[in-house]
Structures are given as structure tokens and as C-alpha cells.
Amino acid sequence: MQPKKMEFSPQHLKRSAIIFSPHQDDETLGCGGTIIRKKQAGAEVKIVFMTDGSGSHSHIIPRHKLAEIRAKEAVAAAQKLGVEPEDILFLGIPDGSLTHNQDAATQKVIEILSRFYPEEVFIPYSKDGVPDHNATYQTVINALKQWGWEATIYEYPIWFWNHWPWTVGAKPNNQELSNFKQELQAGLTLIQTFQYTVYIGDILEQKRAALNQHQSQVTRLIPHPRWLTLGDVSQGEFLNCFFQDYERFHRYQFTQNSVC
To answer: Which CATH superfamily is domain 6-254 in?
Structure first.
């Protein structure tokens, strides 16, 4: 049985928001359709890129050059989503090192929150499982605690999707039936977490056009066999998860006294 969906109301779509993205592409993958919807509704939307994205293909291309490429791609993608360059912020923390730079990053996030006073804050799912994603979640939560501002939080899944049953390539074999049952049960429990949805079925091509601006992530800029793309993850099944009719979020209210 599909969990009951609770769709964003038109009022929520008009609320100001900051999207905190670990890398240049997570904003489009996890929230691209929602950003489009919010901009269509007239909302003020800012995108903050926590790291410089320089680690994705650093085994092939120098990190400083890749950081420059990904920053340009991020601006182009954001414009496809309806967000202008002046509403994009780059913290510039080296890719893969956010966990070790959380104190400095927290102070930067506090400064950003204090400038814009967002009604809504979008962060990666707390259990996404990738270091920079987990660190982005924790950094923003720490900043909110220190700042003392109340906001509605929307956690968006990224690497959460790269598991059975959403990517069949991760399916356990028959000799691991007990593990299969455990994973399936865990998966069903987790998917029920993301009950807040935004319908994006009629703007999928616009979202895809935005993602295509992240050329370093969707194409091989250099014809090198080790230049992996998003389409290579789980034989394309991972990428397909982001082009369903709905984007899903775990929503809760952050207050000075509690997170619920």
C-alpha cells in the first residue's frame, strides 16, 4: 500500500526558502521541481552550495579546474530552475571535507540565515549516508539551534534512493533472504517518512533541462573510462528515481525548544 501523500499547499509554495545543497547537482536532483514550483508561485528562493564539488572526478581533472566547472554549471542549472545568479551562494568548502569543517561552515550558515530569514529550509535527509550530505544536514541544524530562528524543515533524499527496492541492482540474492526481508522492511519504513510531496509531472522536462546543465555529472567531459556519470549509478535506475511525478520530503517544524 502506498503511504498517504500530503501535498504542498499553494500557500506553502509561496513561502521563502533556502536550499542547502552539499554538491552542485543535489539541489536539482532532490528539489529541482519544487524550486520551479516555488518560483512560479513568486517565492523568494536561495540556493547555498556547501562544498566546491571538486572531488567528483579529481582522479582525472585537477580539483581547482573542476571546482570552476561545477560552479558555472550550478549557475546555469539554477537559472533553468528560475533562480537568478544573485540568489546563489557558494561556501567553497573543499568537496569531501565538510565533516571536518563544520564549525566554520556553521558560522557561515548562521550569517546566511540572518541575512534572509527563510520561512522554509531544505536540507538533505538526515540518514542519506554520504559524508558531505550528512554533514550538510548537521551543519544547518546546528546553525538553526545557535541562531534561534523557527522554520519549517524539509529533508530531501538523494542517496537514500540507491537501495533496494528503488534500484533493483541492489536487490539481495536468494541466499540472503533474511537480509532481503530486513532491507525491504527498512525501505518501507523509510519511504513512509517522505509523505510531503510536490507534483512535478508536468515540469519534468524543465527539471531535466536543469540537470543537463551539470554536464560534468551527466556526460563525460573527457572520454575516459573512469569518468562516471549519474546515469552509470545502478545502471540508470538511481537517476530515474528523480524523475518521478512527485518529489518527496520529510517535513517538520524546527523551534528553539524542539525539533518535531
So the answer is: LmbE-like (3.40.50.10320)
- Nearest Cα to Cα of residue 162 among 226, 236, 101, 216: 236
110-148 burial, b at 16+ Cβ within 10 Å, e below that, comes to: bebbeebebbbbbbbbeebebebbbbbbbbbbbbbeebe
The 10s digit of each residue's pLDDT in 92-107 is 999 999 999 999 999 9
Give the other-Cβ count within 10 Å of 107's Cβ.
Answer: 14
pLDDT tens digits along 4-26 = 578 888 889 999 999 999 999 99
Domain ranges, ordered by start, for the chain: 6-254
- Cβ atoms of 128 and 137 within 8 Å: the answer is yes
H helix intervals, the chain: 10-13, 26-40, 63-81, 102-116, 131-147, 177-191, 204-211, 215-218, 237-240
Angle, in degrees to the nearest 10, between helices 102-116 and 131-147: 50
Q: Hey, how many other C-beta atoms are within 10 angstroms of the C-beta on 195?
A: 15
Q: Are strands 196-199 and 246-254 parallel, antiparallel or unpaired?
A: antiparallel
**Measured between alpha carbons, how far is 201 from 77 in angstroms, rounded to an integer?**
19
Question: What is the pTM for the complete model shown?
Answer: 0.92
Residue with cell 538526515: 126
Q: What is the spatial distance between Cα 135 and Cα 131, in angstroms, rounded to a whole number?
A: 6
